[in-house]
Amino acid sequence: MSAHATTDTTQTAFSFSFETIEGDALPLSQFEGRVLLVVNTASRCGFTPQYDGLQALWEEYRDKGLVIIGVPTGDFGGQELASNSAIKEFCSVNFSIDFPMTEKTFINGDNAHPFYQWAGDKVGMLGRPRWNFHKYLIGRDGHIADWFSSATGPDAKKLRAAIGKALAVPADTNPS
């Protein structure tokens, strides 16, 4: 799949689909024209408190066109709970998360979800997730606008500035 992602120049983030934490289809195409912040998450990580900031970003910017998508993974230190229902309950009870969450997903290696294979091909080695709470910012055109390491929290000025810039680009323009 990696080779396909690098040769198909028509692919954007909106070409991919996940399954929700409840088991329903989550085609990213439903968010076309919006800005996405795709974050790989884990329930038992030192960065888990970032859920509070992600929920705050969601509440502040969702009406302006931002969609936050949490992608639970156990790829880094096995720090995610075993079942989707346990993850959903943890996020709801501890952080009141109501932004879209996917099912527990592989994001690294040969079994990585196709979105993460595509994103990794686009950003190169330095921009690939190295731990939980890595963030991909997807512009309204479906292309990667920026990426942020786990250490960059949701309140970071550079993340908020990049979100503001991405939201300022109207959906019908294509800045080439």
Please describe what this structure looks like.
With 176 residues, this protein is of the alpha+beta class. The protein has a single domain, classed as Glutaredoxin, CATH 3.40.30. 30% of the residues lie in helices and 16% in strands. The chain has five helices and six strands. Strands 4-3-5-6 form a four-stranded mixed beta sheet, sandwiched between helices. Helix 2 (50-61) links the parallel strand 3 (35-41) and strand 4 (66-72). The longest helix is centred in the N-terminal third of the chain and has 12 residues, at 50-61. The chain is globular, with a radius of gyration of 15 Å. The relative contact order is 0.20. Residues 1-7 have low confidence and may be disordered.
Helicity level, as a percent range?
A: 25-40%
The CATH architecture would be: 3-Layer(aba) Sandwich
Uncertain residue ranges:
1-7
The largest β sheet comes out as: 4 strands, mixed
Annotation field: number of helices: 5
Write the element-wise H/E pattern from the N-terminal end onward: HEEEHEHHEEH
Query: Can you tell me the CATH superfamily?
Result: Glutaredoxin
Question: What is the end-to-end distance?
Answer: 26 Å
- Per DSSP E runs of 2 or more residues, the count of β-strands stands at 6
β-sheet strand percentage? 15-25%
Average pLDDT, to the nearest integer? 92
Question: What name is given to the CATH topology?
Answer: Glutaredoxin
Structural class: alpha+beta
Tell me which oligomeric state these chains represent: single chain
Spatial strand arrangement across the major sheet: 4-3-5-6
CATH classification, class level: Alpha Beta
| Domains (count) | 1
